[in-house]
Amino acid sequence: MALLQVSGVTKTYGPLKALDGVDLEVEAGSFHGLIGPNGSGKSTLLKAIAGAHFPTTGRILFDGGDITTMPPYQRARRGLSLKFQITSVLTELSVYDNVLLALQATEGYGALFRSRSRARLDGEVMAALERFRLAGRADDLAGELSHGEQQWLEIAMALAPRPKLLLLDEPTGGMSPEERRVTGELLAPIRRHCALVIVEHDLDFIKNICDRLTMLDQGRVLGTGSVAEIEGDARVQEIYTRRV
Amino acid sequence: MTATTGAAPPVAARRGAFRILPAIELAVLALLLVVPFLLADRPELITLLTNVVILSLLALSFDLCWGFSGIMSFGQALFFGVAGYGVALVGRDLEFSQLWATLPLAMLAGGALAALLAAFLLLGRKAPTSIFVAFGTLTGAYAAERLVAGWQYVGAGNGLSAIKLMAFGEYEFVEGLDFYAVALTALVLVYAASRTLVRSQLGLVLAGIRQNEERLAFFGYRVQVFKAVVFSLAGMVAGLSGALYGYHQGFTGPSNLGPGLSTTAVIYCLFGGSGTLIGPVLGTVAIEVLSYVLADIDAIRQFWPVLLGVVLLVVVTFQPTGLLGLAVSARERIGTYGARKAAR
């Protein structure tokens, strides 16, 4: 059974159908890209999976359980993690504390009040920061990082609790070509323990790291398959050459 | 991308930097300990100072809500007033005013009422907006004020006067240094507990919630439950403040649980500097002392509240970090959470 199963998901806002009967399957350990022109429903689908909003109809199964109307905190505790499209690191906190917050979400009130988690989780926090080349900035405020570094920090935060599925919404937005290349390198090793669903406008980036792609257009799935299959699909080529 | 971009000063330099907040906290504590002895022959000033200390607790309760957890409460006086009415009624109907029982009970009453309000305002299926919570708490305070103003059992519009004196065993506390000592002890204990809370890992969670509660929910935190817990704790602090105020004044009335006093607590906090704990104390001291001084000047006796209003407006508008923001850096106000490891 697939790690994530999205079946017939529809999301409407008044008369507008942002998603229209979307089906999607993501296997454990696979990297799955969502592509499509602006307004095709990629981010809406990602948010429905993460719990930022609930589908109007349809079902979402994750790791064998129905999460369709589950609040975000419960999804997170089941192993689902999200990086927002707009960078949402906590700019007034240190880089270290941003990652620590991501790691200590399931601690009890007593343990948090006695500050037990900081010492115990120190190794994990620093390992996450080192993986994303931010260990040297641990004590700096997150707001002092460059845009690219903030994107990395947010990915580090999303990955720190070792989720089963990571949802990334345009992780390379605003990055330089070199930063994009490095981001791809940083993401590659997570395949060992985590599946990935990624929304990205940079087709070269997404083709390099993903196993499978799903093409969305006007809220509907236009096609799903390997990178080669999707690249060869005439409908996909038509949309990308005309509208993207 | 380089690993060391940005204009931030080196970490080592920050670690060794002088921290002014603890110095301000110690200075305020020293003043609150020493000044009453210097004013021993001015009982009206001891009374003023006692009121300031008690109202500081109310301001502190608002700071826990807004300054540390992002809960805009315009209803802190509700918990304050209910506790005041509580000790007044227990004194009148049960002839009991032993502080070892009534003060904890007042805290429980304030906390329980806050928990109840939090259940309605914060723990719904959808996360509430700040405006919803602000209006909800404001409405609660307004409704409570109207309710007691028309309820004969609690004295209606006249309130309850001649509240039985707070006692410990046979000893009864009247206005003066001994009552001040009790109030100051309460403030120091609550301050120390609050300081421990907001500087702990729990405080880190609250700081995260204040900045971006959606982000915290996606980490797996039950954000609204955290907020409800802090709101209830703040209700306990407001309850303690209200009980002490009732005992000290010997009177409680509808205005003690309405929007007027709730808003005053907001002003104390914003004027001193929210999110700092010591800021609300300084704000309360500044506003109450300024009111006392201005009201005593013949030339402005008729319009001193206008003058005070202008001062408050200027500070809150042009100095959003309050008086403390003039002396304390943003980095220091943000602070650190939990034990600092040797490496950091």
From TrEMBL, chain A:
UniProt-listed SMART domains: AAA
Domain of life according to the entry: Bacteria
Keywords: ATP-binding, Nucleotide-binding, Transport
The keyword Nucleotide-binding appears for this protein: yes
Alphabetical list of InterPro entries matching this protein: AAA+_ATPase, ABC_AA/LPS_Transport, ABC_transporter-like_ATP-bd, P-loop_NTPase
Organism: Belnapia arida
Name this protein carries in UniProt: ABC transporter ATP-binding protein
Nucleotidyltransferase in keyword set: no
PANTHER family, sorted: ABC TRANSPORTER ATP-BINDING PROTEIN, CONSERVED COMPONENT OF ABC TRANSPORTER FOR NATURAL AMINO ACIDS-RELATED
Domain ABC transporter per the UniProt entry, residue ranges: 4-243
A GO MF label: ATP binding
TrEMBL record, chain B:
InterPro entries, sorted: ABC_transp_permease, LivM-like
Organism: Belnapia arida
Keyword hit for 4Fe-4S: no
Designated name of the protein: Branched-chain amino acid ABC transporter permease
Membrane topology: Multi-pass membrane protein
TM spans (from-to): 20-39, 45-66, 73-91, 103-124, 131-153, 173-193, 225-245, 265-294, 306-328
Alphabetical keyword list: Cell membrane, Membrane, Transmembrane, Transmembrane helix
Localization per Swiss-Prot or TrEMBL: Cell membrane
